Amino acid sequence: MIKFRLLIAVMAMVTYFSNVTAQISPKHYLVNLTDKKHSNYTINKPEEFLSQRALTRRAKAGISITEIDLPASKFYVDSLKSLGLKIVNVSKWMNSVSVFSTDTALIDTLDRLSFVRSVGLDKIESNVLEMSLSKKSSSQTIRY
């Protein structure tokens, strides 16, 4: 009877910890793009992609508008979306896209796309997920 209870306890712990591991496995990735080609915008018309407040602040500080200020290419973002990736966030200054996917085989093929410079874990999204799971399992443990 003791062996049976011990077996049940071990099986319950294995099941619990395998579920926790599956939940915190990273599924957010950061896709860094190569360039800003195919942009719908031009630096000659910054008012189309920058707010008036940003333009005033830049003029006051003497900061010119460059290609770095252009938003990430909508064509590239739409291409990633059409592959089945969920777009979480787009960073125009980092020229990157944060995506969510459970298809690791798809993620492994992204760096073969001509407009992708690199692909890696989105550490910010993964850490937020890990923190929220830690709060649920232990109110005293917060991982950063």
Q: What would you say about this model in short?
A:
With 144 residues, this protein is α+β, with helices and mostly antiparallel strands. It is 44% helix and 16% strand. Strands 2-3-1-4 form a 4-stranded antiparallel β-sheet, sandwiched between helices.
User: Can you summarize the main beta sheet?
Assistant: 4 strands, antiparallel
Poorly predicted residue ranges: 18-24, 132-139
Count of extended strands:
4
Distance between the termini: 44 Å
Helix/strand class: alpha+beta
What is the count of DSSP helices, taking H or I runs of 4+ residues?
5
3D architecture notes:
44% of the residues lie in helices and 16% in strands. It is an alpha+beta fold. A hairpin with a 4-residue loop joins strand 2 and strand 3. It is elongated. The chain starts with a helix and ends in a 7-residue tail after the last helix. It has a 4-stranded antiparallel β-sheet, sandwiched between helices. About 10% of the residues have low confidence.
Task: Show the helix and strand layout.
Blueprint: H1 2-24, E1 28-33, H2 52-61, H3 74-82, E2 86-91, E3 96-100, H4 104-109, E4 116-121, H5 123-137
Antiparallel strand pairs: 1-3, 1-4, 2-3
Which features would summarize this protein structure in a list?
4-stranded antiparallel β-sheet; alpha+beta; 144 residues; 4 strands
